[in-house]
Amino acid sequence: MQFKPLLFSISYRMLGSISEAEDIVQETFLKAYQVDMENVEHKKAYLCKIVTNRSLDVLKSARLKREKYIGPWNPEPLVFESNEDDPSELLLQKEGLSIAYLRMMEHLTPDERAVLLLREVFEFSYKEIANIVEKSEDNCRKIFSRAKSKISRIEDESLHYERNKSIVNRFIEAFMLQKTEVLLELLSEDVTLYSDGGGIVRAAIRPIFTLQNVTAFIIGLLKKAPKDFTVEVSNVNGQPAIVIYLNGQLSNVVSFLIRNERIEDIYMTLNPNKLPIKTL
């Protein structure tokens, strides 16, 4: 079970789904139990190959579901507890985990996603990657280069937790006090808001573009919000995010893409099937 955090990390990053990643990891270990692992020379590589290929299968079959998904699709937020000594959390909080990064992965093909993660996030050699995805090393290099060019926008995402937390706190204050001028300072001119309700709860079914429209939408949310809502800043996917509760029940997780100390993307996840079970 020593490889469980690694296997979950790979599958979750590929799929953006906690439940699916957990199922795949369980399937991987069940498959491993059916063989004599004592005769497997490179256990880590063997398990990573199983979990990657199974994740690829799920990802390819899920593409049709994503196309039929109602409204924008956001990855399932992964809310961390405060225990920084947990080795699985330390592994998960490496680069390539932010909601912005995972959402940008949607622009990649399944093979591009696998190669990019294995190389850039988990630092596998091209020889190891070629064995896992069953392609030549040269082909893997080309796939990696192509994938990198597709997600170039995310390259300079700020991952400085405390600095980003300060920006998020200022955002909350401006939102609560309806300080439009402060929101205008914090948001990029090209800011986009993605509201994921999955057709289950009310949410914007299309991305909201431009500073003016996003600001108006945010202020409108506050005016419609019930009085019994509370907010807190939590560690979500290794970055500060806003967690919103209604009647003590978790109802919304708001994550951000921050670049050059400005908010460029806002990811609101309201779909109850994607929210972790947590109450105040």
Automatic annotation (TrEMBL):
Q: Which GO terms describe its molecular function?
A: DNA binding; sigma factor activity
Pfam families reported for this sequence: Sigma70_r2, Sigma70_r4_2
Kindly give the SUPFAM superfamilies that the UniProt entry links to this protein: NTF2-like, Sigma2 domain of RNA polymerase sigma factors, Sigma3 and sigma4 domains of RNA polymerase sigma factors
InterPro entries hit by this protein? ECF_Sigma-70_Domain, NTF2-like_dom_sf, RNA_pol_sigma-70_dom, RNA_pol_sigma-70_ECF, RNA_pol_sigma70_r2, RNA_pol_sigma70_r4_t2, RNA_pol_sigma_r2, RNA_pol_sigma_r3/r4-like
Q: Where is the RNA polymerase sigma factor 70 region 4 type domain?
A: 100-151
Domain RNA polymerase sigma-70 region per the UniProt entry, residue ranges:
2-63
Q: Which Gene Ontology BP annotations are present?
A: DNA-templated transcription initiation
Describe its assembly. Answer: Interacts transiently with the RNA polymerase catalytic core formed by RpoA, RpoB, RpoC and RpoZ (2 alpha, 1 beta, 1 beta' and 1 omega subunit) to form the RNA polymerase holoenzyme that can initiate transcription.
Q: What is this protein called?
A: RNA polymerase sigma factor
What organism is listed for this UniProt entry?
Answer: Ureibacillus manganicus DSM 26584
